[in-house]
Amino acid sequence: MPLPKWNNSELKVAYQCIKPNFILYITGVIGNSITEASIFATIAFVFRDMLNAGANRDYSLLQRGIWIISIEAVIACILLVVFGYMFNVSVKKAMANLRIRIVDRTLDISMDSIDKLHSGDLISRINTDIQTVETIFTNQIPRLIYAIIYGVSSAILMILLNWQIALVVIALGAALITVNGLFMRSFRKAGDQIQSCHGELNTALVDVLDGNETVKLFSMETIMIRKYGEIKNNLLDLTVKRGQIQGILDSINFLLSSLNYVGILVVGSYLVSRKFINLGDIGAIVQFAMGLTFMFQQLGSLLTQLQGSLSGMKRVRELEELPVEPSDYPGGKLLVSGIPDEPVIKCADVSFAYDNDKEVLSHISFQAGYNETIAFVGGSGSGKSTLMKLLLKFYLPTKGTLSVFNTSIKEVSPEVLREQIAYVSQEAYLFQGTLEENIRMGRRGATFDEVAAAAQRANADEFIRDLSDGYQTRIGEGGFQLSGGQIQRVALARAFLSNAGIVLLDEATSALDNTSERMIQKAVDSLREERTVIVIAHKLSTVRNATKIYVLNNGHIQEEGSHEELLSARGMYWRMVERNFTA
Ligand SMILES: Nc1ncnc2c1ncn2[C@@H]1O[C@H](COP(=O)(O)OP(=O)(O)OP(=O)(O)O)[C@@H](O)[C@H]1O
Ligand SMILES: [Mg+2]
């Protein structure tokens, strides 16, 4: 019998999901199955009694049968509700836990793994694939266990009644399962393809939604629709293909089980006519044969369906297996005390490549001290933002060492390191929620007054108070939309609120109006007090007061010095100033 090859690890992961509620789940499923199977067994015996009652004109048998069926029905109704509740609740809990665990895990995934995932695919794994996993527990496993209990109990009772007929039925059942086994592999393949197609579909959808502006700008509607349509058609083809396989399988199953009945009726009527067996027993045997055929039929098709659902499990597992940021560091502490004499940040001969072949940063060395502002300028793609991401330990340098407070960042956990750093990114991200909540992310537990004071220092307080809901204005999906300059100032307020000793500011490249620019400039100037500030500047005004300026060109430091020194050197910086930093 070609039994399916199980991928143990996927079954193990499936078990891990339900483990905390396993007892509740399995009691519910087995209880449910036993209750249902016993109803059919009782019906078979009552059916036997009734046929015999008719044949022998013994009406007491008839009366007994009606009583038994009625009592059994009432008890079964109650039990089915209780057991059904038990397993449904345990599955819902397990799936909720799985979703939370996956999202939690996603947050820990290292940057270079996240870079390779599209958010649409990620959403598809968290929603569609976990839904598929859910059907394993709500549908396939309960049906499988029910089929086995119903089938095995029918087989035993049938053997007790007449073992010869039982053997015939079992032989036909074995044929059924063999046929189903032959279809298993193609089902699994179709399942894999369908799940990954769902991922592609989501990816395309996110492109349509997130890239809406660009799509409209370049009149890409037709292209996007065509792309979406192609994936959708592909999905349709795959689903139809799987449906065809299922159809062929179903009809073969139907044919074989019909043959089974005919076989029993032919053999049975012969045996009754020869008085080897009574009519009632044949009636009961037909009922038991139904249970047995049901088991074989279900085993075949359920095992194939389970293969399909395990494809979903596989995609969920892949997500769980992506490398995460390491979290256990031996020393793990940063000694941040008083005013350090040593440089706060030391970058010694650092090189870095996202992919092995192309170095994005080469031999970068610089230092930044307390109360200092170090500025980086340079053309687009010269590696400025990448340098900040290295300081935040989103990626590790391929060569050289980066130290913060005299400790190599390699030895510090990302959490401990990031506690010391306030980062205002180039594309500041505001979360769904109120402005107050968004600023408070800088330091959870800050009072409203502290939030407002930080906003004031970031020159955000005034525009926020002008909004009709002030600090309670809701941002994000369906909420209020802020301008680029306003978003940057809210992000700056977060940095002001945090107690971090280091501030990394990746100035927005988007053109800010003069007022916004001036306000941000004033904010940055006051930010440097009692802190170490590294700023990536796209505006001349931001750099002029910097302690030291580094000019990056294609990943290496081309020039360094103060504003005046660099101007008099008449090099790259001077040329940039002439063009007023249109980098
Ligand atoms: N996640 C990534 N994976 C691979 N390559 C990347 C990634 N992020 C950036 N790069 C590449 O690294 C180089 C430096 O990018 P970076 O974002 O550091 O430039 P930048 O100086 O900040 O530019 P800009 O002024 O436009 O913000 C670019 O060639 C870019 O294509
Ligand atoms: Mg950048």
Number of helices: 19
When the domains are counted, the total is 2
Query: What is the oligomeric state here?
Result: single chain
What is the CA-based Rg, rounded?
Answer: 35 Å
Bound molecules: adenosine-5'-triphosphate, magnesium ion
User: Major sheet, described briefly?
Assistant: 6 strands, mixed
Average pLDDT, to the nearest integer?
85
What is the CATH H-level superfamily of the largest domain? ABC transporter type 1, transmembrane domain
Give unreliable regions as ranges. 1-6
State the helicity in percent bands: 55-70%
How is the CATH topology of the largest domain named? ABC transporter transmembrane region fold
CATH architecture of the largest domain: Up-down Bundle
Estimated share of beta-strand residues: 5-15%
Shape: elongated
Helix-strand makeup class: alpha/beta
Terminal CA distance reads: 70 Å
For the record, the CATH class of the largest domain is Mainly Alpha
How many DSSP-defined strands? 12
Spatial order of strands in the largest sheet: 6-9-10-3-11-12
Describe what you observe in this structure.
It contains 19 helices and twelve strands. With 583 residues, it is α/β, with parallel strands linked by helices. Strand 11 and strand 12 (556-561) form a beta hairpin. It is 64% helix and 10% strand. Helix 5 (119-161) runs antiparallel to helix 9 (279-320). The relative contact order is 0.09. The longest helix is centred in the middle third of the chain and has 53 residues, at 221-273. It starts with 7 loop residues before the first helix and ends in a 5-residue tail after the last helix. The chain has two domains: 13-320, ABC transporter transmembrane region fold, CATH 1.20.1560.10; 345-578, P-loop containing nucleotide triphosphate hydrolases (Rossmann fold), CATH 3.40.50. The protein has helices spanning 8-18, 22-56, 59-108, 111-115, 119-161, 163-210, 212-217, 221-273, 279-320, 384-391, 414-419, 435-440, 448-457, 461-466, 484-497, 514-527, 540-543, 563-569, 572-578; strands spanning 345-352, 361-368, 373-378, 399-404, 407-408, 421-424, 433-434, 474-475, 502-506, 532-536, 548-553, 556-561. Residues 1-6 have low confidence and may be disordered. A six-stranded mixed β-sheet has the order 6-9-10-3-11-12, sandwiched between helices. Magnesium ion is lined by residues 384-385, 426, 506. It is a multi-pass membrane protein. Keywords: ATP-binding, Membrane, Nucleotide-binding, Transmembrane, Transmembrane helix. It is found in: Cell membrane. Residues 345-579 form the ABC transporter domain. The chain crosses the membrane at residues 22-47, 67-91, 144-161, 167-184, 252-272.
